[in-house]
Design goal:
The complex is a heterodimer. Helix content of chain A is 35%, strand content 13%. Chain A is of the alpha/beta class. In chain A, the strands form 2 sheets. Chain A has a 4-stranded parallel β-sheet with strand order 3-1-5-6, sandwiched between helices. A two-stranded antiparallel ribbon of chain A has the order 2-4. Chain A is globular and about 35 Å long. Chain B has a two-stranded antiparallel ribbon. In chain B, β1 and β2 form a beta hairpin. In chain B, α3 packs antiparallel against α11, α8 packs antiparallel against α11 and α8 packs antiparallel against α13. Chain B starts with a helix and ends with a helix. Classes of the chains: A alpha/beta, B mainly alpha. At the A-B interface, β2, β4 and α4 of A face α3 of B.
Chain lengths: 152, 336
């Protein structure tokens, strides 16, 4: 899971329909916080495939670090000031909209100000299957919507 | 009684001012310390409004830490007064809502309320209250022989009720796939991390009047401790006062459980400490337990926030780690 990225090259990476040419170069890397656990708040550190997805999609993972799946407190997330907050959950059928609402009370958070709290399909994001490429595409679209304007 | 009134008032004032001062220090510490580092100077400036500390620091202080510290203070006050009342009424120094299973009883009520789709307040609060009253009645029924609540029977019954309620809670969690219970494990350990100003209003609105009522009954508790006959001759309506105090205490416990989960042993540690320092007079003990219970809970929560190098842990873990060994020590001492 951690080494090269064969699944990407095997599908769309190099093709003209690939997402890399569109996602890169980007004007700035967007600070992302990717939440996989709700109580306690758990995010993704550097040695994870989701971290690689964020980087590939032109984002910067504010939770990066040596711990694979670090825990956070609410105030730590507020202090990190992510521009985009992405919620997926290991708990299937969780009440993501409620979680989203609970973040929306921090009106000073850049992600809240710009209405960029995103709930994503955990079936795509939570396992490193071939469909992870779809996850990457979704993520790139959500992080850099401006790069995808005009495309179908 | 009448003659020592000015003395009591004077002492009450001194004790209250002292413990209020300690509580204020704890509140300031609770607002200053946490998983993100904010300097004392910034905190002070933000609290007094003398300088603009920046939006992020303002949010962390005013929207995360201040409500959390206030909730901790209210919960600690309620739980320690609850313990004090239980110890006086049941005449057992080891009685405490958590140990006697009242907290788990209201936990069952709360979980059933959550599963029934009720709102956190008042819905879940009411089911939690029903659960705690039911367990209290069951406990008194089990432990009372000829109207007298016996000492070890009470504790054993309480521990067993606690175990049974714990099993029931685990059963409810294991059969449900309801996503509303996804954060239940943290809640079961007694968690203050989701506190908001809404919790403060709910808790304050119920707990402060209850504490005031208990303070008004503190002299009655003194007399009750002298024995039933004495209390009767001094004009105390024993059944009425006992029932009233037990119901009010159950209400306080169930409200804290419905908001923050069952937090244990606070009602054991603080009343014992206060009795050690201040003696057995409940007119002094009730206010001092309210103030120092709040202090204790805030400090435990500060430890829960700062000890782990990642994230936070539930405050109930800390109170249990301090309280359970103390319970064993007290049990050993009382057996001698």
């Amino acid at each position: 899971m951690r080494g090269k990225r064969p699944w990407i090259s095997s599908r769309r990476c190099a093709g003209e329909s690939g997402i890399f040419p569109r996602a890169f170069p980007v004007h700035h890397t967007v600070h992302c916080f990717f939440q996989i656990g709700i109580t306690p708040i758990i995010s993704v550190g550097s040695p994870t495939f989701i971290h690689e997805l964020i980087v590939l999609a032109g984002g910067e993972n504010v939770a990066r670090g040596p711990t694979a799946y670090p825990r956070f407190s609410q105030e730590q997330v507020v202090a990190l000031a992510p521009e985009v907050l992405i919620i997926t959950s290991m708990a299937r059928g969780g009440h993501f909209e409620e979680v989203k609402k609970s973040w929306e009370k921090w009106s000073d958070l850049p992600a809240v100000k710009n209405h960029r709290i995103l709930v994503v399909d955990s079936n795509l994001f939570d396992r490193a299957s071939p469909r992870i490429v779809d996850a990457l595409e979704t993520l790139a679209m959500k992080i850099h919507p401006e790069r995808f304007e005009g495309s179908p | 009684m009448i003659q020592n009134r000015p003395y009591i008032l004077h002492r009450l004032l001194r004790v209250s001012v002292l413990f209020l001062g300690v509580l204020m220090v704890a509140v300031f510490l609770g607002i200053s310390l946490g998983s993100t580092h904010i300097g004392f100077k910034d905190v002070f400036e933000s609290l007094t409004g003398t300088a603009d500390a920046g939006a992020t620091i303002q949010t962390i202080i005013w929207q995360i830490r201040v409500p959390r510290v206030l909730v901790a203070a209210l919960v600690g006050a309620a739980l320690s007064v609850g313990g004090l009342v239980f110890q006086a009424l049941l005449r057992n120094p080891l009685a405490e809502p958590y140990i006697l299973g009242i907290s788990s009883g209201s936990g069952i009520g709360a979980i059933l309320g959550i599963l029934a789709g009720l709102s956190r307040f008042p819905g879940v609060g009411i089911t939690a209250f029903a659960g705690s009253v039911a367990t209290l009645l069951l406990l008194l029924l089990m432990a009372s022989g000829q109207g007298m609540v016996r000492r070890n029977t009470l504790l054993l019954s309480g521990v067993m009720i606690n175990a049974f309620c714990g099993a029931l809670i685990m059963f409810l969690i294991s059969i449900t796939h309801d996503a509303r219970l996804h954060n239940i494990i943290f809640w079961l350990m007694g968690d203050l991390s989701t506190s908001s100003m809404k919790n403060v209003w709910v808790l304050g609105g119920i707990l402060l009047p209850s504490c005031a009522l208990i303070f008004l009954r503190s002299n009655a508790m003194n007399v009750l401790l002298m024995g039933k006959e004495v209390a009767h001759t001094m004009g105390i309506h024993i059944r009425w006062v006992t029932g009233e105090l037990l119901v009010v205490t159950s209400l306080m416990v169930s409200i804290t459980v419905s908001q923050c989960g069952p937090i244990g042993f606070v009602g054991l540690v603080i009343p014992h400490l206060m009795r050690l320092i201040l003696g057995p007079d409940h007119r002094i003990l009730v206010p001092s337990c309210i103030l120092s219970g709040g202090t204790y809970m805030i400090l435990c929560d500060v430890l829960a926030r700062t000890l782990p190098d990642q994230g936070e842990m539930p405050a109930g873990v800390i109170t249990a780690m301090i309280g359970a060994p103390l319970f064993i020590i007290l049990l050993k001492r009382s057996g001698r």
